[in-house]
Amino acid sequence: MLWNWENAGFALKRPLGDSDGTKRSGEGKVTVTTGHRPTLGSGESPNGTTSRTSCGRPVTNFVFIKVHKTGSGSTFLVLARFGRNHNMTICYPSNNAHMRLSYRNPSLDRSACTPALRNYTLIINHAIMNKTAMDRLMAPGTRYIGIVRHPLEHFRSMYFYQRQNSKVKKGNPLGSYLDRNVNYKPRKRDIKTKPFSHQGNFQAYTLGFPRLLFGSRNRSQIEETLRTVGSWYSIVLITEYWEESLVLLRRTFCWTMYDILHTTKRIHSLDNPKKSVPLTDKQKETHRKLSPMDYLIYEHFNRTFWERAAKEGPDFWDEVAYFKTLNLEVNHHCEISGEKRSFPSSKWSHEFVVDSTFCEELDWETTEWSSALLLQLERQNEEIRRKQVQIEEMKSTH
């Protein structure tokens, strides 16, 4: 162990080939989520299946490390809907706990969350990976989900997001920023004292990589850390291949295809001309020097993602194509009608029904889903209190 947190499109069947973050047509589009549990036929299992093996029980105990500006907001909506549908108990940051969930803090405990009378089984709000503390906080057997985006595209999105309320100078402010930092070298003092930088290695930091490693040239140490941290995650989603990632998540966690349906309205793309300003090769290289660890982890998780996808066999790609078509059909139905409709079973999914409630929830955002999960938490607490009262009453009569 290198450190101790207690002390401290369908046709694209290959990894991203462009190291500079250039997108092909259709890439980088990230979308969202929906409604309530599907109606199953008589005798049907609620669990999805793959063409290779039958799944067991669906995973209903997980932490999603929500990395800013990676499509994590869209992913939040998918996971929040699943959590509501499966009666999961959310660790929602308590009034003053945002910083406690957002920084590696050995003292992270139940006080950081809205009180629950049962084990927490869900974290999906912004939080820095702190596996030791989270394992202690969550119910036994917690699984972890991560997400990464190409570092240059992530940098573009973060840069303009932070400046959306300010007057950005004309021209190429992104390129100018990189030009000013062409000779930047992190100081050891900064690495030790500053928790993170939005412009440098932010994804690596959020996913749990130690900052002391960011300036390291020890390749064996870096590779060992990649393997160690990588082993914490059951799956790391790739923003540029978000729907492919959802299908692999479905298979990995034994979920149904209904569980990963999402709205097509919430598209994250470079729709702002300022975000797509061209950068020179020198400016791109400067960014690589600013965020070397982000590039390393992206290359690592991108490669391992496609290795896993390849092991799924050609059937995986058939399922991805089917899922994209099905999801579009569901969205189209909700847009033009929203009435009750049954979608037939397939090789990868059971028959399910959507209705007006489903379609309404298809447009829900973070606020609505957070409220739904907190309401669910309150109901869980009320039910436990009611049972406790019943037990005490039974004891008093004997």
Automatic annotation (TrEMBL):
<keyword id="KW-0808">Transferase</keyword>
<keyword id="KW-0812">Transmembrane</keyword>
<protein>
    <submittedName>
        <fullName>Uncharacterized protein</fullName>
    </submittedName>
</protein>
<feature type="compositionally biased region" description="Polar residues">
    <location>
        <begin position="31"/>
        <end position="54"/>
    </location>
</feature>
<dbReference type="GO" id="GO:0001733">
    <property type="term" value="F:galactosylceramide sulfotransferase activity"/>
</dbReference>
<comment type="similarity">
    <text>Belongs to the galactose-3-O-sulfotransferase family.</text>
</comment>
<feature type="region of interest" description="Disordered">
    <location>
        <begin position="14"/>
        <end position="54"/>
    </location>
</feature>
<dbReference type="InterPro" id="IPR027417">
    <property type="entry name" value="P-loop_NTPase"/>
</dbReference>
<dbReference type="GO" id="GO:0000139">
    <property type="term" value="C:Golgi membrane"/>
</dbReference>
<dbReference type="Pfam" id="PF06990">
    <property type="entry name" value="Gal-3-0_sulfotr"/>
</dbReference>
<dbReference type="InterPro" id="IPR009729">
    <property type="entry name" value="Gal-3-0_sulfotransfrase"/>
</dbReference>
<keyword id="KW-0472">Membrane</keyword>
<keyword id="KW-1133">Transmembrane helix</keyword>
<dbReference type="GO" id="GO:0009247">
    <property type="term" value="P:glycolipid biosynthetic process"/>
</dbReference>
<keyword id="KW-0333">Golgi apparatus</keyword>
<keyword id="KW-0735">Signal-anchor</keyword>
<keyword id="KW-0325">Glycoprotein</keyword>
<feature type="compositionally biased region" description="Basic and acidic residues">
    <location>
        <begin position="15"/>
        <end position="27"/>
    </location>
</feature>
